[in-house]
Amino acid sequence: MCVVMADPSALKSFLDSHSRIVVLTGAGCSTNSGIPDYRDTDGQWKRTPPVTYQAFMGAEETRRRYWARSMVGWRRFGRAQPNGAHRALARLEAQGRSSLLVTQNVDRLHQAAGASNVIDLHGRLDRVRCMRCGATLSRAEFQHELAHANPHWLAHDAADAPDGDADLDGVDFAEFTVPACQVCGGILKPDVVFFGETVPRDVVATARDHVDHADAMLVVGTSLMVYSGFRFVRAAADRNIPIAAVNLGRTRADDLLSLKVEAPCDEALAFLLEG
Ligand SMILES: [Zn+2]
């Protein structure tokens, strides 16, 4: 039975009556930090779905296009700052009321806001990994390599897209050079879980263990259309612990919720920052 409320006081009562809350967040948490969302309020794609793992690894052409757009998009994404929603959830952790925050976001803004018990379910965009030798480097460092190899590309005007991507029109991606791993010459990939890839088993097991010991779940800013996040809500429902959600629009778990607040994440959670 889902109760839709615009009034966050019901959410305050919900959070006040639990002490081992697992929080699950998604893109809606970060839209006020200037990072666009992929989906509309019905959970449908607003735009072309992101590149798959198979497409990225399978073709140099796809990687050129990906990194060209990423290089331009990173200028803004790399500067994004946490907003009130991130700060409110960091406060919930500092108060000792949340045991874990699982995020589907790859922007690290929960950590930037001070949260420390965080699982980056889909990885992190601030790191790049070699798919052959496993070496990692920071995305900021790789940005220098990209810019050095493609000095004229940063002059392109582009519209921001999700996950540090940018829409680039009228360019020839064949002219873009993608630097290889400096250790082994292998293919470099953002250290995020692409569509078509699976979340590492130990990451899922750790999150699942927290859900199994939680007394409530709070879902913030996600339509839960991706199974990798939805499964934890399913697990919470199977344990019969109450689940509250803050989201603009419908979620895949609406019939599993005990409370739903349809409001922007930072507004709905603002009470956590009072006092
Ligand atoms: Zn390598």
From TrEMBL:
Top-level EC class as recorded in UniProt: transferase
Highest taxon in the source lineage: Bacteria
Pfam families: SIR2
Gene3D superfamilies, sorted: SIR2/SIRT2 'Small Domain (3.30.1600.10), TPP-binding domain (3.40.50.1220)
Cofactors demanded by this protein: Zn(2+)
Catalytic activity, reaction form: N(6)-acetyl-L-lysyl-[protein] + NAD(+) + H2O = 2''-O-acetyl-ADP-D-ribose + nicotinamide + L-lysyl-[protein]
Domain Deacetylase sirtuin-type: 1-275
Cofactor binding annotation: Binds 1 zinc ion per subunit.
Binding annotation for NAD(+): Q104, N105, V106, D107, G221, T222, S223, N247, L248, G249, C265
Catalytic residue positions: H122
EC number: 2.3.1.286
Purpose of the protein: NAD-dependent protein deacetylase which modulates the activities of several enzymes which are inactive in their acetylated form.
HAMAP family (alphabetical): Sirtuin_ClassII
Name of the protein in question: NAD-dependent protein deacetylase
Gene: cobB
